[in-house]
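Running this now, will post back.
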Amino acid sequence: MTFGATDAPLPGKELDDSGLAQFPMVMGAIVPVVNLEGIKPGELTLDGATLAKIYLGQIKSWDDAAIAKLNPNTKLPKQAIVPVRRSDGSGTTFNFAYYLADISPEWKSKVGVATALEWPVGIGAKGNEGVANNVANTKGSIGYVEYAYAKQNKLIHTNMINKAGKTVAPTSATFQAAAANADWKSQPGYGVILANQPGDQSWPMTAATWILIYKKPVDAATTGEALKFFAWSYAKGGKAAEELDYVPMPANVVTDIQKMWSAEIKDAGGKPLFSPTN
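Update: finished.
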């Protein structure tokens, strides 16, 4: 293997023990999507605490007082909430659960954070596609999917109240705001989970995809070519990422990543396989 990709970054010790370098390549976001008659995209607002209670099975109806308080001008139906969640292990679930655990101590203690969970409630579906299809076909349902799936399947997304207490919509600008406000150097391998980042414009469930690559690869030539491709992607791939409803990494983070390549990813003789001046 020359490289791999993951939506759930390796923690510091595991990364050190593996002999791998890790760096974020592109960012997306997780959005709640609903199937409620009369509700259009962005007309419903939720916060993390309410979302956690829905998936804990504590908020069971769309006209619950907690939801009504967040949506005083929205006519909410007296309708059972049908939570839809992933049945398979996934980075999307990891990032969604990480956000809920950051907001809700009860979620953290009862459910926790992992790529696969023991869910208190809900209908399981495989993949983002499965969750999207279940929500689209189930009245009163709520699910969580990558933004690209919400947009491409024309699902009804909710707005969210972020860490700053501001109501934000899922857009490239709010995803980029979360990335810009993150302290990328605070974790080994830039393994920062972009949940609940500060900033008035930050979307609270933004997530990156990380590349894993050996620091001392067996096939140095192939690994060097892979790094050149990633460098090209950072420099030229931003428009393509946005067309797929993802967002590119901040320029200052890319500069730092490429310096890391030069310092850490080397051939058998200790020569860097890539340097920013290549």
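The CA atoms of residues 57 and 121 lie 6 Å apart. More later if anyone needs it.
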